[in-house]
């Protein structure tokens, strides 16, 4: 039964990697043919630089996903490991996102307008947000051991004071009840 699940995951990974490869290769070829060959007169250095950076990032992400998803076989050809599950979140989902953004950029800028290169700013904007929200902000506002100790003592003294005030109120209520 476990072998069936491994084979199924290996097949799913192979299908997904093949789909990503076709999408990335097709969009890259479309961009090169339409934008850099047929309309090369309007392509300037910035277009070449944006294409180089975007394609390098996308192909790096694709190769990383292909490596992560690669199955492992033993000497006899028996499937030992099906590779990582690409449908899980984490780094693999970010790799997918970079590939999808690159495919969109290549197709849209080849067919529509160079202004759509501005969509590429989504990736560093999200990376900056994630770095700030998940790394820098918690690092800034995490109390040190001394601050944690001071906060603990302050909470304990407040709790003791509240307990003492409650006891005094109960005693005062008992005295009032006896006088009446």
From TrEMBL:
Annotated keywords: Endoplasmic reticulum, Membrane, Transmembrane, Transmembrane helix
Example of a GO biological process term: vacuolar protein processing
Segments passing through the bilayer: 20-38, 44-62, 126-145
Compositionally biased tracts (Basic and acidic residues): 151-171
Superkingdom as given in the UniProt entry: Eukaryota
Protein's cellular compartments: Endoplasmic reticulum membrane
Membrane topology: Multi-pass membrane protein
GO annotation, cellular component aspect: endoplasmic reticulum membrane; vacuole
Region (Disordered): 151-180
Keyword Translocase applies: no
Family named by the database record: Belongs to the TMEM208 family.
Protein name per Swiss-Prot or TrEMBL: Transmembrane protein 208
Species the sequence originates in: Micromonas pusilla
């Amino acid at each position: 039964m476990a072998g069936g699940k491994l084979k199924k995951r290996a097949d799913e990974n192979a299908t997904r990697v093949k789909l990503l490869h076709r999408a990335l290769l097709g969009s890259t070829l479309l961009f090169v043919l339409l934008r850099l060959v047929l309309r090369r007169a309007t392509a300037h250095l910035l277009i070449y630089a944006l294409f180089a950076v975007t394609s390098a990032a996308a192909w790096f992400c694709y190769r990383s996903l292909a490596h992560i998803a690669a199955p492992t076989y033993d000497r006899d050809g028996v499937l030992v490991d099906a590779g990582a599950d690409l449908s899980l979140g984490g780094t693999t989902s970010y790799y997918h996102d970079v590939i999808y953004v690159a495919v969109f950029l290549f197709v849209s800028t080849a067919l529509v307008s160079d202004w759509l290169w501005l969509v590429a700013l989504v990736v560093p904007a999200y990376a900056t947000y994630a770095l700030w929200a998940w790394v820098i902000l918690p690092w800034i506002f995490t109390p040190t051991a001394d601050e944690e100790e001071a906060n603990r003592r302050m909470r304990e003294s407040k709790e003791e004071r509240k307990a003492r005030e409650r006891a005094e109120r109960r005693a005062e209520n008992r005295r009032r009840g006896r006088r009446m």
